[in-house]
Structure formats: structure tokens, C-alpha cells
Amino acid sequence: MTVARQESTARRGPGRPRDEELAQRVRTAAREEVAELGTYEVTLASIARRAGVAKSTVYLRWPSVMDLLAEALVEVSQFKLLPSKGDLRADLLQLGEQVVRVSMVTPLLELHMHFVAMGAAAPGVYRRFQSYDMALGIARGKEIFLLARERGEIGRNINLDTAASAFMGALLMNALLGTKTSTPDQKMIKNVVDLFVAGLVHA
Hints:
By secondary structure, this protein is an all-alpha fold. The chain contains ten helices and no strands.
């Protein structure tokens, strides 16, 4: 092995780090393509071109452009799970603001709308998008409802999975279809939270 090759290997590290570095570049390129061209114009070939990698490299890792976009989406849409405030309404307001803020990050909003729109046409990809994008929010919502049940704020007959999924769905749908602003719509979040709290408390 030459000195130059040894230095290159030492800088890069063995196998996996290099693969992840390349994947990161491709995911970044995917988000840039969506921001510039829109979801319907993006292809695996255009993403590979922007990332400066061979098309075969992209095709081997991602079977379709939607699989790649779903992965690119989750990379920047994860949010920090904050501690409970000890009150159902306060916890839901806190979660709601995080979910809506994350959904507004460019180009997340267009990606969200695209995945929702294609749900019926490609249910498999849509399910992967849901698991990527909504898993953390739903898990946190379920935890919030569980704590509320233990505090006696909601009845023990409430299905926690259904409540958490419905809350996340209502937030995202309102964020996607509402007026586009640079900051979360606090009034919309409050309305969704109050609707859920009223319904669950009296269930």
C-alpha cells in the first residue's frame, strides 16, 4: 500500500463511515432537489447528479425516489422529546408546537403534502413515510395520554394508540392545509389541543 493510500484510509476509516458519508450526501442532495424542483420533478438520476455520485450507487441503496425522499425527510424531521409538564393540555401544546415546527422546515412541508397525496396510489411507501415521520410524535403522544390517564385526567377506556395517532394526524393535516407562515400557528395548535382535551376528558 502506498503512503498516499495509507493516509487516505486513515482519514476515511474502514468501510461503514465512508458509506454513511456518501448516504448523507445523497440525502442532502435529495432535499435540495425537492426545494429547487418540487417533488414531482425529482428523480434518482437527478439526485445522484447533484450529489456527485454514480446513479448505480443510488439505485442499489434506494429502490425508488420515494424511498429516498422518505429517508431524507426523517433525517431532518426528528424532534427532541421534552419532559412532561404534569398536565395533559400543557403537554399536548408543547408536543403540538414541536410537531408543527418540524413539519414547516423546508422542504419538509412539500414532502409532507406529497406523501399524503400519494397515500392511496402507493400505500407501501406511505406506510414507510408514516413510520419514519410520525413514529416519535405518536410515541410521545401515547406517553402523554398514558400519564394523563394515570393522573386521572382521562378515562381508562381511552385507546392510547388511537388517541396519539389521531392527534398527530390532526396537527399535521392542519399544518399542511393551513396558511403558510414562518412560525407555528399557535391558534391552530391551541384549537386542536382544546378539541382533543375536551373530547378525551368527557369520553
